[in-house]
Amino acid sequence: MSHKNPAISRGVDWLMIWLYVALVAIGIMSIFSVTYREGESVIDGFLKLRSDYGKQTFFFILSLIIGLTILLTDSKFFTATANIWYAMGIFLLLLVFPFHTEVKGTESIIRFGSFQIQPAEICKIFVALALAKYLSRVETEFTKPRSQLIAVAIVVIPALITIAQKETGLALVFFAFFLVMFREGLPAIYLIVGFSFAVLVVATLLVEKNTLAIVLTVIAAIAVYLSRRQIKRNRQLLVTIAAIWLVCVSIQRFAVPFMFTHVLQKHQVERIFSLIGRENPYAAINSVEGEVSTTKDTDYNVRQSKIAIGSGGVTGRGFLKGTQTRFDFVPEQRTDFIFCTIGEGFGFIGSFVFLALYLFLLLRIVSVAERQRSVFSRCYAYGVASVFFFHIAINICMTIGLAPVIGIPLPFISYGGTSLLTFSVMLAILIRLDADRQMVLR
Amino acid sequence: MPVFNQSRSTIIRLIFLGVFLIIILQLFNLQVLSGNYRQLAMNNAVFKKVVYPNRGIIYDRKGKAILNNTIMYDLVVTPNEVKNIDTAALCTLLQIDTAEFIKRMVEARIKNGRYRPSIYEDLLPPDIYARLDENIWKFPGFALVERPVRVYPFDAAAHIMGYVGEADSNIIKRSKGFYMMGDYVGRSGLEAYYEGVLMGQRGVVNLLKDNRNRLVGSYENGAFDTAAIPGRSLQTYIDIEVQQLAEKLMAGKVGAAVAIDPKTGGIIAMASGPNYNPNDLTGPNKQKNYGRLVLDVAGPLLNRALQGNYEPGSTFKPLGALVALDEGVITSSFGLACNGAYYGCARPVKCTHKNPGHAANLRIAMANSCNSYYSHIYRLTVDNPKLGTRKGYQLWKEYLNTFGLGRKIGVDIPGEDKGLVPDTSVYNRVYRNSWNSCTNLTLGIGQDMMQATPLQLANAMCIVANKGSYYLPHFVKSIDNEQASDTLLKKFRVKQEVLTHIPDEAYEAVIGGMQDVVDHGTARVVQIPGINICAKTGTAEKYRIIDRKRIKLKDNSMFVCFAPREDPKIAIAVVVENSGFGTTWAAPIASLMMEKYLNDTLRTERLKEVERIASANLMPSYLIRLQFIEDSTRAFKWFEMTKDSSYIKKYINREYYVPPVKDEPDRKRSALNTRPTLFDDRKNSLKRPTA
């Protein structure tokens, strides 16, 4: 490589940088096609920061500057200060409670004059760093339940605080870090149990409760029948099967209804039921709060989003030609539903290429992670990959009707300064750590 | 230790791949497999605004526009733009109260939403428009929008022209989606028959709208727009002056007058009484006026020229004579000794003449309109020894069908009735198979079950005048820019040589007889100097069941004629219901129409005659009774429904009571003026839209 400043560029993964630039460019272009109106001065839009695409470009440049600063930092700085960052993140999160500003139903934003930040968004970086730091500690033995519990706590504490701020979407992102723990040896059984729990919850929503109880009982009976020989030798197995059965039935009978009536917020319940196309059976309980039903709004968002993406067809309707996204039919179009613009404007082929870029970036991050000698770098890289993956998967699934509408942005694409800066910083730290992969183990 | 978990990176990669694959599959499903999303997006964003072309204009034979277009104004409102307006001032201008104002604003919001304009008041009367136009700047959110409206400059030919109205669900269904809600469609008359020609071609402008239905610009710069093509105009045979004269003469009478040019089949005039002003069914008060016309028992909306069924009476005699001559049962020199009645059957048929020799031959019998003579030749025709009564009658009936009686002729306005010439099966049923030529003897003098419309009678006169041929009667001479694909007029341009097999001598005998009727027979009143007119009067008996009693009404005054004899240019049939002899009312009306048409003007001494007939009120008195029954019944139903006694009160009062009619009622003119109506329409000034 022939770079003029070998000190900075040595070991830097240019492929990731180009992917990053390409994605941000697509993002600005998408925001442009949503907000640009015929007859506007494009140059004014960019230079005077009047338009959303201008602001996004400004944040892109800001991200580049911060990214460059990070590349100039010593990689040891991040390992050394990870815990301090984490503590500061938690502090920021807690600071929200007394100082938040009510914006569109969320209580997670602090505003200083015209500048506002969302600590839950930024906190992802700190959790990724702190988790990597903890897992890379020499004294940490991740096979021990105590270590596993601490690791889980590092992730779950900010998640719980975020839930308390009515930002369930951003809180869920923290659970992406379980992928990092899985990579670092968290027994697969946890993921399997988690997955089974998810299946059970979905089944509870879809299947009539008595039918599901019967099905569960039949499954338990079949399990007992199939393992009758082992049971003869080991009575405890029967007890285990019976216990699993009891847990399943109680989850289905009590835990899920409790979750839907007491834990989740009304609009979230509505969104989940609108996704699966059912009437909300807990509506009566939820509506005690006296709110107006939001089902129609949620349905409307997803329907308009699907119409937008579907109308793109194979080749798309062309840049600035999409009527759905040009005329505000899809709400939250610049932010959470930005993928509609790509789907409508560039069709299946465009969406495919776009997703391929994303997948390429994710797989690149994973392979970068695997080439690290340092556990810290690897864990951090997996943290980045997990967070990106979770954002991308949930956001796009939401726009095409595969996931309930939870407001999380599409990395590098969605309009929003905090989110673009956060993702850029995450990636920049990763590139910095990767550039120093030849250094001794930390 | 971490090395042991190396394989887990593969699992993570597989998870990433798996989720992306699911996303790709769903995208494939949405974007490639489901085809309707593009349409849904178009429905969301593209508003197809229909551009209505001007309807075609209808001209009379001299090129005067008798049905034209004008502009009226609708007041429209865009609710979200209405801010800080002086509501009271607007209400005063529109002559409404504040409650009505609020009601209409709410309706507008419900109908088209806050961001799209809705009609606030349609078809503003000219005076309100003038006042609003000056002040409209004071009312942001309100605007005056042009709207093309049909106008009838001569206030005439209502039944011929017909009217346009909004397409109802039936029309929309029948048109298989061509018409949409809110489209205007010809609902009767030429407007309906020539709808396809007059309406032109609607244009479509594709406009983009945003999520609040606001229009934000044109779609693809109008690449998919289509221009509206104006409707084509119609040139007709109508002579609007003759038409106006006919309508004037038919005023205050129940009946019809039809004038046809025998050379072309072109209808010169067609008036039906009672009549209405066609401009009442356009413009601001159309709904109100329509209601008034529909509720009138005299049936002003009925076109009696096409839909009135009348016993032709003596006006049938020329046809009966032609059939008998063609069948060879008589010759023109055949004579009958009549002394005041026909005694061939059990029931004598009275004749108005007693003097011997008044039926010495066909021509003389025609001039004197001898009932005995025509009853006899009817019997001769039907009891044709070669065929027998049944077949003889059937043949006679077919002759009449050929003359255009008892079937729809096929004129170019909808709603034609076919009249009645009963089949043998009808008589078989009524008389249980036991009937003969005596049973329906009065068919020979145009009575019994025979019924014909004035149009049919006029058309039959054309056949006689043309000696056996005719053109289907029609109004429209040509369509502007006529193309080969315009098939509407094709059938009207074919000469129908239906009865040319009847020898000319037969026609000459009958036509001679008809001329004698005018020269020295029953229709001497119609004479016009310098023109040889052939005519036949008729006086048909009339009964009607009123209050479950069969009432003998005054005779219908009938008249048919054509002129000039040598070169027929006009054939006329006139019916004036319940007014007496054919000579008294129908004949002078026809005479004036002929004179006006043939000489293009009326002699000054005739103008007095016009005024005399025009001012004669011959509305049958039983109509007052019928209106009373109708209105009081409706008032009663209204009372039953709403318990609102405001309407029914009036009918309980003895002062307003109308007694049942008796036979041959003597007419009380004054009663007509105080005729009770359910809805007082005197306040409803019948204004004509000003261009």
Commentary on this structure:
The complex is a heterodimer of chains A (442) and B (691). Residues 286-295 of chain A have low confidence and may be disordered. Chain A has a 3-stranded antiparallel sheet. Chain A is mainly alpha-helical and 442 residues long. The longest helix of chain A has 32 residues, at 339-370. Chain A is 71% helix and 3% strand. In chain A, helix 6 runs antiparallel to helix 19 (375-399). Chain A has one domain. Chain B is of the alpha+beta class. In chain B, 36% of the residues lie in helices and 17% in strands. Chain B has 24 helices and 20 strands. In chain B, the strands form 6 sheets. In chain B, strands 2, 3, 4, 5, 10 and 16 form a 6-stranded mixed sheet that branches. Chain B has a 5-stranded antiparallel sheet with strand order 12-11-20-19-18, sandwiched between helices. In chain B, strand 18 (534-546) and strand 19 (549-563) form a beta hairpin. In chain B, helix 13 runs antiparallel to helix 19 (504-520). The longest helix of chain B is centred in the first third of the chain and has 27 residues, at 7-33. Chains A and B meet through helix 9, helix 16, helix 17, helix 18 and helix 19 of A and helix 1 and helix 2 of B.
Give the strand order, joined by hyphens, for the main sheet of chain A.
Answer: 1-2-3
Q: Uncertain regions of chain B: pLDDT < 50 for 5+ in a row?
A: 665-691
What overall geometry of chain B do the principal axes of the alpha carbons give?
elongated
Gross geometry of chain A? globular
Summarize the amount of helix of chain B as a percent range: 25-40%
Order of helices and strands of chain A: HHHHHEEEHHHHHHHHHHHHHHH
List keywords for this structure.
heterodimer, A: 442 residues, mainly alpha, 20 helices, 3 strands, 71% helix, 3% strand, B: 691 residues, alpha+beta, Penicillin-binding protein 2a (Domain 2), Beta-lactamase, 5-stranded antiparallel beta sheet, 24 helices, disordered C terminus
